Structure formats: C-alpha cells, structure tokens
Amino acid sequence: MTDCDCHFEARDAEQRKVLLTVFAINSVMFVAEFIVGIFAQSSGVIADSLDMLADALVYGVVLAAIGRAAALKQRAARWSGMFQLGLALCILGDVVRRAVYGSEPQSGLMMGIASVALGANAYCLSLLQTHRHGEVHMRASWIFSRSDVIANAGVILAGLLVWLTGSRWPDLIVGSAIAAVVVKGGVEILREAGA
User: Which of 64, 89, 126, 161 is deepest in the core (most CB within 10 A)?
Assistant: First the structure.
C-alpha cells in the first residue's frame, strides 16, 4: 500500500465519520421537529423538519459515495440537489394548505424547537467546515447545513413575530422562505455537480 493509498483511506474514514454524525443528528431532529411542528401548527417548523429529513437522506446517499469513483460522487451530489428541489415542493404545498385552511401556530413551541435545531445544525456545520472546499459530495453536505442554519434562524424570527402580532402569516412567510432557501441550495448543488 502506498502513502497515497493511506491518505485516501484516512480521508474517506474522516468523511465517513463526519457524515455518520450529521446523518444521526439530522435524523433525530427530523423526528423531533416534525412532531413539534404538528402540535405547533407551524409550516416553518414542519418545513424545517422536512429539510432535516431530506438532509438525512442525502447524507445516506453521500455516505454510499465515499471511496467510490468521481462519477458516482457527482451522481450522489446530483441526487442530493434533486431531493432538495422535491422537498421545496412539499414545503410549498404545506404553506398553501395552511394559507387556505388556516392554522394557529404556537410561537413558544416554534422558537423552542427551532433553537434546539439551530444548535444541532451549527454543530453539523462546524463538523463539515473543513470539507466545504473538498469533493463535490462533501461540498453539497456543507451547503445543506449552511441552509439549515439560515432556516432555523428564520423559524425563530417567525415565532417571535407570531407572538408579537398574533398572526399566522409570519409562519407562512418563513415556510415559503425556507422553500426558497432549499431551492437555492438544490440549484447550487446541481450546478456544482455539473447537472
């Protein structure tokens, strides 16, 4: 085994360790946020939970690409971008449903779970920071976490505005904004993957 082979094995092991950690965090946060989002009647929280689910699925795809050929890594990144775009459509569907049929978002629950999610995503982002200029599949993972931090801050702001105004519209606006952030991230990943 050459020094070069050892370097690649060490790099792959490091990537695998980071991705397993962020996969676990996103999976747990998806379940927690989805449950709280239902009780909180919050499009923003549900949108954020679905974003966590998409991220967890993408991290699983990216994990499968580690140590594989560059073409497979590029394909994994492409799938990641498409997952993000599909997620955005689901989020927009929930926002439209709540806009038409109504909702009464609970600001305290929104801000509480979004604060926990912000901490979790900030930690994921810090783990992925050293890989943000690496291979395409790792750059895609970093983009996901960066988008999540923005979305969490938006849900906290929406919760505060719901509390201050007594209106559901800040929640719906933030749900729509999360969809836009997700679309932006998906397009960015597809561009990085050469799609």
Answer: 161
Region for 67 from its dihedrals, namely left if φ exceeds 0, alpha if ψ lies in -120 to 50, beta otherwise: left
pLDDT, averaged per 10 consecutive residues of the chain (195 residues), comes to: 61 82 94 96 91 81 71 74 85 91 93 96 89 69 80 93 95 91 81 72
pLDDT at position 190 is 83
- Helices 43-65 & 107-128 angle (0-180, nearest 10): 20
Report the helix count and the strand count for the chain, using DSSP H and E: 6, 0
- Burial of 6: CB neighbours in 10 Å, binned 0-12, 13-18, 19+: exposed
Q: What is the pTM of this model?
A: 0.81
Which domains, ranges and CATH numbers included, belong to the chain? 3-192 (1.20.1510)
Tokens of 129: 């920071």
Check if the beta carbon of residue 125 is closer than 8 Å to that of residue 150.
Answer: no
Name the percent of the chain in helix, strand, coil, to the closest 5: 90, 0, 10
* Other Cβ atoms within 10 Å of 17 Cβ, number: 10
Helices 3-40 & 136-165 angle (0-180, nearest 10): 20
Distance from C-alpha of 99 to C-alpha of 106, rounded to nearest angstrom: 16
Burial class (CB in 10 A: 0-12, 13-18, 19+), 71: exposed
